[in-house]
Structures are given as C-alpha cells and as structure tokens.
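Course assignment 3, question 2. Fill in each field.
Student: A.L.
Task: Predict the tertiary structure for the chain below.
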Amino acid sequence: MSMPTPSAPHVPASRILLVEDEPDLAQVLLDYLQRDGFNAEIEGNGARALAQIQAAPPDLLLLDLMLPGLDGLSILREVRKFSHLPVIMVTARVEEIDRLIGLEFGADDYICKPYSPREVVARVKSVLRRSQSAPLPSRPSGLSAPPIEIDAALWQVRIHGQRLELTPKEFKLLQALAASPGRVFSRTQLLDLIYEDNLDISERAVDSHMKNLRRKLAPLWPEGELIRSVYGVGFAVEF
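Answer field:
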C-alpha cells in the first residue's frame, strides 16, 4: 500500500495595502495584484491607512502621494518611526525633487503616473524579493567593530552602545562601507549595492541617503566624521 505524498506547506500570499484615492485606478491595480496571487486591499484615506498599518502592517505598502486625510509623505514619515516594511511611492508629481524627498523619507521605490499595472506588479515583486532576501554580505554573525556594531540579522546598528535608527537604504549604505573600512566606494557602486533594480534612480539618491545617514551619525560619533568624502571619487568609512 503506497503512502500518500505529503502536501507542500501552504505559503500565505504576501499582503499588499494599496493606498489610493482614485477608485477606478485602485480597482484596476487591485485586480492585477490579485490575479498574480497577492492578498491585496484598498484604502482611500491617508489617516485610516496609517491606523491600519499600525494595527496590522502589510508585507508591502503601495502609497499614493496625494491623499485625503493625510498625505503620502506624512504617512511614510510616521511608518518609518516603527517599521521597515517595503514602501513603493506612487504619484503624478514627476519632478526629481519629489522623488528625492520620497527616497529621503525611506521609500524603497518610486513609480510615476500614468503607469502600466503590469509594471507596478513587477516592481512589487522586485521590492518584495529584495526585502525577503538576505542582507548585503558582511562578516560572519554580523559586523562587529567596536565602537560600531552592525547586526545584519536584526538590521540593527549601535554606535558606542547606543542604537541608531536607520531606514533600510541607510542601513545598507553603512553596512557596505563598514564591511570594508578605508575602501572608497563610488556613487555608482553604492547605488548598485542598495538598489538591485536601479531603474530610473540617479546617483543623487545616494547623496540624499548619505546626507541623512551622516546627520544621524553625528550626535553619536564625537570623534569627527565617520564617513569620509573623497572628492570626485566617492565615500569611505574610517574607524
């Protein structure tokens, strides 16, 4: 008598929260996401969306910039205070400054309207792959070089024993630089390290993340600048 073949364990679908106040557009995108197997839902009000994220964070947030109740950047700013969940900003405002502001607040990707729903689904899959994959390579069991400690498994950084709150991109920047003290990384190299699919992402995004990272490091690193700029070349960590 043959034994029944054990069934594969059920893997729950990734939950996507689509925060969009244009009902027709939101419904089309919802249909595409559900067709690809995602557990997707819509919220059209920014304040309600933030409350929902705080109560039950999704696996990924598709976040429109212009929303009633609370705008997208305000939501992103609040979310980054308690979560590193992947966020893709969606907006009709295409100016580069808007894109950089979104990146500075910790967005993982940026899509401009009008867009192809298929492209959005592809971006969602890409960002989820990055967020679920192992962090950038570092020394075994996390990088530890007192007085700076970087725990790759927990995505935590401590400077002189004090925890440093960073966005995912800032964490990856510091991790990459600190893994090779003294090595100078170009902006292009850093861009490739923090964005696996760096479509339409300019090198200025690295400068924006670096500016924020240095600002956060400054109060905890009285010895001077931890990250050194090499004019015309790039950046290096020295400790």
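Instructor remarks: Residues 1-11, 134-145 have pLDDT under 50 and may be disordered. The longest strand covers residues 15-19.
Grade: pending
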